[in-house]
Amino acid sequence: MINRLSRARGILLMELKTLLLEVEDSIAIVTLNRPKRMNAWTGRMHTEYRWLLEQLEGNPNVRAIVVTGAGRSFCVGADSKALEGHVEKGGYDPGTPDPLAEPGYGVRPEFDASFAYHFGLKKPVVAAINGPAAGIGLVLACFADIRFAAPGVKLTTAHGKLNLPAEYGLSWLLPRIIGLARANDLLFTSRIFLTEEAEQLGLVNRIVENSSLLDETVSYTRSMIESVSPASLMETKRQIYTDLHRDVAQSVRDSEKLIDYMMKQNDYREGVTAFLEKRSPKWSGD
To answer: Can you give the pLDDT at residue 98?
Structure first.
């Protein structure tokens, strides 16, 4: 684990006080690291998270990102001390410097916002929800591309019980993940629900015992990046989230252009050869 200024496989790190980073088999494991505060979100964590994603996005040694929490929580939302501070100041203070890092920005205007920038990343993000996720913690999990979770973990949108609006685009995202009626239930009531229900709703992809959650999440991610080419993962992710903002005809035309373009790449030749030779592909990224 790395939590101070150093280099890890070409990643120049700032002094990370709220996150841990480990790079294993081209997978970056980012751990929210405030276990004594249940990994509550702060301005410092927000700043470090965006900065680190920007570094990982630009690093060729990293092909996928796993996000999890230290200790017994994923992220319980905004730190209670910060919430008290907002009351004292009479308004919202993000506690972040200006400017912030902008990972995933510049792909589409719709993605150029807090947390929505996940949609502009070239690399898949997989959440390993090891403990409670509330408010902004649930937001973070929902903006991941795939979600694994431990059984019996409590989740909640939380905002309604604090006289707040649905946070950071969750009112846009949740209906698109689980459908309008189910999302309305979670958003209107801010009720607590468990990961088993989340799996039934389609919010969580898989329930895994906590003792093996991170290992299985990393194993799944490793299998994905070994069997699927870097270009295919990148373009498929871009297509998925871009298609939420365009019609089906545009989606079809874009895919036809991509087919022609990607068939000229070396990894297309390698994929076909590996398929015919019944072996695992050796992707070059070209």
So the answer is: 75
Residue 1 maps to a domain: no
Same-domain status, 147 and 110: yes
pLDDT, tens only, 117-146: 999 999 999 999 999 999 999 999 999 999
Q: 250: domain range?
A: 228-277
Query: From edge to edge, which strands make up the β-sheet containing 64-69?
Result: 19-24, 27-32, 64-69, 125-129, 146-149, 206-207
Structurally, the chain folds into a number of domains equal to 2
**Is 115 a member of any domain?**
yes
| Residue 140 CA from chain centroid, whole number | 6
What CATH number is given to the structural domain containing 216?
Answer: 3.90.226.10
Please tell me whether residues 173 and 81 are part of one structural domain.
yes
Cα(168)–Cα(107) distance, integer angstroms: 19
134/263 same-domain check:
no
pTM of the model: 0.91
The pLDDT value given to residue 86:
46
